[in-house]
Amino acid sequence: xxxxxxxxxxxxxxxxxxxxxxxxxxxxxxxxxxxxxxxxxxxxxxxxxxxxxxxxxxxxxxxxxxxxxxxxxxxxxxxxxxxxxxxxxxxxxxxxxxxxxxxxxxxxxxxxxxxxxxxxxxxxxxxxxxxxxxxxxxxxxxxx
Length: 144
What we know:
- This protein is α+β, with helices and mostly antiparallel strands.
- It has a domain at 4-85: Glutaredoxin (3-Layer(aba) Sandwich).
- The protein has helices at residues 13-25, 41-47, 66-76, 88-110, 113-123, 126-140, and strands at 4-8, 30-33, 55-58, 61-63.
- Strands 2-1-3-4 form a four-stranded mixed β-sheet, sandwiched between helices.
């Protein structure tokens, strides 16, 4: 059996999904940390231009999406099942809903001013918070 190598960065929710699937399956794997933002020269060379996270490498094979990673892990070790027998389509549809629609809305909600204010309130002074939000709105309006 070839080694499983996950190319990821810690803060990515999709990387967390891949790590959870690997853990659920009880598979041993190696970690290669990649930058969260471009440039990603090593990853791009490996994937032929795919720049998202997560990427699973098994030997010379590369899997560039958590849906593909899930299918490949299911072939690697079938128990416990990520796709319960007779419910494969439901599991895949639920995963797609979470990865696309739910994720998109969660990101949009978390980047609203009140969500940013709550995030900054836990991490910095009121003055630093005001400066950061002011810069963000100037940048968004093209006045940066």
